[in-house]
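Re: that chain you flagged

S.,

Sorry for the slow reply, it's been a week of failed gels. I finally had a moment to sit down with the sequence you sent. For the record, here it is as I used it:
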Amino acid sequence: MKRINILLAFAFILAATACEKDRAFIEFKDLEYGAFPRLIDGVNGEFNFFNPTGSGIDFTVEFYDENEGKNVQSYAWTVSYFDKANGTFTTPATIGTFNASDFKPAPETGLPSITINFSFQQALDAMGLTTDDIIGGDAVRFNATLTKTDGKTFDISNTGANIIGNAPAFGALFSFDQNIICPSALEGTYTAVTTYHSHDFLGDGYTTNTQDVVWTALGSGQYEVAGFDGGLYSTGPYQSGYNTTALTVTVTDACGTISFDGASDPWQMLLQDPTRPSTYDAATGVITISPLGDVYGENWTTVYTPK
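Prediction finished late last night. Pasting the structure tokens below so you have them in one place:
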């Protein structure tokens, strides 16, 4: 059962924490004199399918190396079009290269830093594409390469996951996907009918549930959905069995493509069920979402009908 796994995980965390207190922190000089750009603000903004010249993104990074960032020579970015349906990318094309002369001291740390702006039109021009060549809901893949004065280069392929991860100390910005969105208006109250295909308590009668669910707009096609679990975690058997509460998940509408990247319950990530694609019917406003737990296999389908 999940409760046993939780206790084991907790014990492991306590043990790991105790060991961590006994060892010295690995000094930066011991990381083979690498370098990375730490994200300190962003990525802000959006790529609007209907307004390429008027939409864009910005972010700010500061540079770290063995010489307080002063050995960073350049920070270059490429873009490629990400066709989500086929899982393919166009050949990366350079969109901007920023040299040490472009860097300014960060106000708080004094480290070299830069704020970078890219419009959607810049990305399209760099890739040699127009809106006739792309589909709303796909994305632009950004990849960066940092070059030091000694010629060493660093990118997502040779930088450790602990540096790239969004931990407070690091959060190196070498790669990200920028979704291509369309104006979205899904905010409101829905009648949500959930059918559970699999969960720990199947057989106890809790296989369907109907409840009202509110979608709250967060901007840029994102919505906060409280009650994403269809009642199982708030009023169903998981509430009494595991003391859970309703799941609140951020759902993204990218030109009618519905996704919930980064969603999780107390035990696992919630992924898109590949056998039951999530859909949005623009004519009726009906949204259908089918999550799948990546560890224990909980999966369900919720049909959201506007009230």
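What I noticed first: The mean pLDDT is 86.

Talk soon,
D.
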